[in-house]
């Protein structure tokens, strides 16, 4: 949940989801393949969930400890990489701006 709530991850998922939906909408052949794949994944997920549940119940204390450790690691990562709190569009815009600025600086240096 913590990873999914990171602004960068969340906005990247939105971008991919929008592209996927748009592609399905625009291309009927791809839509039929995607629909079949989605049904297959749903069936496998439902079948696996019932088999895995007893194992997950047994491992729950270990999973909780690992989750706590991972959460602390993500907090530290978020502090060191503020980029994770920015949406994809802003990162792309900032990168274009930075590259433009550097190219302009290089042109100025060469011309002088």
UniProtKB/TrEMBL annotation:
Pfam families given in the database record: Perilipin
Keywords, sorted A to Z: Lipid droplet
GO annotation terms (biological process): lipid storage; positive regulation of triglyceride storage
Signal peptide coordinates: none
Main location: other
GO CC, one annotated term: cytosol
Family according to the record: Belongs to the perilipin family.
Protein name from the UniProt record: PLIN3 protein
Native source organism of the sequence: Pelecanoides urinatrix (Common diving petrel)
């Amino acid at each position: 949940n913590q990873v999914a709530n990171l602004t960068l991850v969340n906005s990247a998922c939105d971008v991919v989801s929008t592209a996927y939906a748009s592609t399905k909408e625009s291309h009927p052949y791809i839509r039929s393949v995607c629909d079949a794949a989605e049904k297959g994944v749903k069936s496998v997920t439902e079948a696996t969930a019932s088999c895995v549940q007893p194992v997950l119940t047994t491992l729950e204390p270990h999973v909780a400890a690992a989750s706590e450790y991972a959460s602390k690691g993500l907090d530290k990562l978020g502090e060191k990489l503020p980029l994770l709190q920015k949406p994809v569009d802003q990162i792309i815009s900032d990168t274009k701006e930075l590259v433009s600025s550097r190219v302009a600086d290089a042109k100025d240096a060469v011309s002088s």
